Batch of 4 targets.
Target 1
Amino acid sequence: MARSSSTSSTNAAASSVPPTYEAALAELEQLVGQMESGALPLEQLLNSYQRGAELLKFCRGRLQAVEEQVKLLEDGQLKSWDAE
């Protein structure tokens, strides 16, 4: 039973919100690398997948917030980043 409580503590710490988009992206890249290595046990692989989904949701939310700010700055029009 001690193992499950330590796993719960680890999961609680891992599910914290990253301080920045960059920190979330770095953690996500690290998780992907570990998962792709094929060396993770099944339970840890599942936990990593769940954490990755949380990080991806966080990153998408931050990007959407920035996009909305750009729209405001550009007078309601989202302009293309392509050079004209």
Target 2
Amino acid sequence: MKEKVRHTDLSAPAPALRLIDAIVLIVGIVIGAGIFRTPSVVATNSPDQFWFVATWVLGGIISLTGALCYSELSSAFPNAGGDYHFLKTAFGKRFSFLFAWSRVTVTQTGSIAILAYIAGDYLAELLPLGAYSSAFYAGAIVISLTLVNILGIRFGTGLQKLFMALQIIGILIIVLAGFLVEPTTTVQMSSRAVDAPSNASIGLALIFVLLTFGGWNEAAYISAELKTGSRKMALVLVTSILIITLVYLLMNLAFLNVLGLSGMAASEAVGVDMMRATLGEKGVILIGLLVSIFALTSLNTTIFTGARANYALGKDFSPLAFLGKWDKEKSSPVNSLILQGVIAVVLIVFGAFTRNGFEAMVDFTAPVFWFFFLCTGLSLFVLRKKQPDVPRPFKVPLYPVIPFLFVAFCAYMLYSSLSVTGTGALVGVALLLTGWGASFFRKPMDDIR
């Protein structure tokens, strides 16, 4: 028995992350290229400037309620599997297998491919390589960042800090240009200008705002790797959400100051239009580089956290045991990183021939994502009842009000995503059902931890 325990300890994640590392990872994964895509949709569905700004504030508040729930779960049940571990503890291995299946086949690898394509699209504009430039760049980016994470956690987090430093500079340039530089061109904006939206839908606006806020829950996957222990997860999550909300507000106010609400609603690329209006064509080149950096920052963290869920799956199911190997020297799940990278590259190749866009991938992933987000919220109630004696360094304040609000909102988002997405959602659900069928044939490994 002692030999088994020793072996398990050697192959498990070791505390290697400082608080600042964790905050950088979470802020980096959330503040991505989506902030350059979604503001125009939010503006289209906002009746006036007040509601436009209020929707972003509401997105931060909703994310904060979720972060408080995740803080309790992460501090009480720290594990590299994150949501996977919470769902397994609350609902059993078959259900957690379904979650891990969905991440591998739908949500996580799909997110990696989308982010890689965003960076690839902008790099292709700066230096085209032919008909499939975006795919070449996207594939090269995924392979490169996967190799970076295979080299080890210190190298990976070091690169993330570099990306974040460049990202902070980019945010400052955008905000300063939006508030301090007088627009030098008005023709483009006036030709795009439209009246205030008449088909405003705050609910739809909120869907896209929360899509832009998405990713903070990835903190759960690094809860076992904090040097200070999981008791500090609440500090990591709350600090990250506050930083993210502040950045989003400043960037959107900058866009709003230059373009106005109707100008944003009419724009297909608010960042490009704002920078062209303030800094000219040089600003357009600059925004292309900034969007690429934003996408790379999110992509690097998505690769980092995604492989850890695959690692947890490999620890529990013998046919996938190769995923459950942890390289202690590099402090990373090397096999999980490799499989994740291969699947993402396959999706990129597929995307090179279909190219049905960002919206199609949102259709594909959103219902599955919100279903499991809802279930993770419910797991908080289940585990309070099922394991009341487990030490909880952090407890959600105002329980059960805040967890109930989070669960209710997840249910609303699940309904909204199913009603809006249509056919794309059916494909994602079909893959989920395939995973449910596969779960009956899996061979659970004995839990020796």
Target 3
Amino acid sequence: MSDKYTTIHYHNYLELDALLSLQKERSKAVGESAHDETLFIIMHQVCELWFKQILTELDSVLLLFREERVREDNMHTVLLRLRRVSVIIDLLIEQVKVMETMTPLDFLDFRDYLFPASGFQSVQFRLIETTLGLREEDRLTYHGKSYKTVFTEEQQDRLDTVEQGGSLFELVERWLERTPFLQFGDFDFLSNYKEAVERMIARDQQHIRDSELSPEMKEMRLRVLGDTTTYFRHVLDRAEHERMIEQGEARLSYDATIAALLINLYRDQPILNIPFQLLTELMIIDEALTTWRYRHAQMVMRMIGNKIGTGGSSGHNYLAQTAERHKIFRDLHNISSLLIPRSALPALPEELARGLGFYFRGR
């Protein structure tokens, strides 16, 4: 008979005997039981369980994006699973508050038993970063060595497999590059966008010059406004964008960047709405991970001050630097500097507008 029709008890289904026996306090083993060590262990075990779920969601998203042609009916599934990831990360951030109910003195009761263990050694968290698209060359080094040196050979192989299989960043980049609406008949998005930007800037510059502001304030306003040689330059000049990629100032390809810009500008078109939400969700995940790293860094500062971490890192300083440096979808955030008001958007040809909308063709 299939297991589907056999009975199961809650306790056995969740393997609670095994699960609840996994908290083994090192302080208790030497006869110096530290009350808060159980909390410390449970908090980190819970994090690892949530990391497992995040990887489950991300792996499923990668499978959908690896299709030669990403089906529109899969996009909503991708969006929902990415939203689940961001909600889980929000929960991880909230859980820091529970850890902070432990005082620095409570932590000192068992900290000496933790050497050389470190959160840096969480292979699941490194898999999450790598799966999302954090490259080794963009990481802070660990004692001047590859971050992989702290892992076993088997764990390193897992990380290598993820790197070679294509990250979510890379797969989303290819998906964006296939956007079909950049050139539609006689409508060329980029040339129309450039003309709209030039009109908008010229109009705003004139309004500033005609205003009653002081000369100093006018000069400042004009600098803030910018022109086609500042914020917009790299999308209006492929060579400039390629230079930025070579210099590490950008990562997303030129074609993918233009596609992301179109999706953001015409987000209200029904067919582009879910792609817009998907790009937004990637930014939310990036922001949430940055917040989680920052909260972790603040908690470490509170617990150990400027002491060296148990794994030998610089502790708070290292964690604070990763919060700023280990951002993955920075290019998507930078699209905001390229946006123009809806009132300045180039009008879409009627046929393209119908193609992007909910259009029912009757008999």
Target 4
Amino acid sequence: MAAVCDICDKKPGFGNNRPWSKKATRRRFDPNIQRVRAVLNGTPKRMNVCTTCIKAGKVSR
């Protein structure tokens, strides 16, 4: 599943793993994406939505 929100277009962020040895390796910070059945223009549709949008009420389930 793609880690992109259909509402706010939130995508993964990138950074480094920093262990005790300070050896930097790349990593991904994925948003918390949930597959929800939302009502869009009066019709129910399955969407990939981040939990921030669900909590903010941007999508009606």
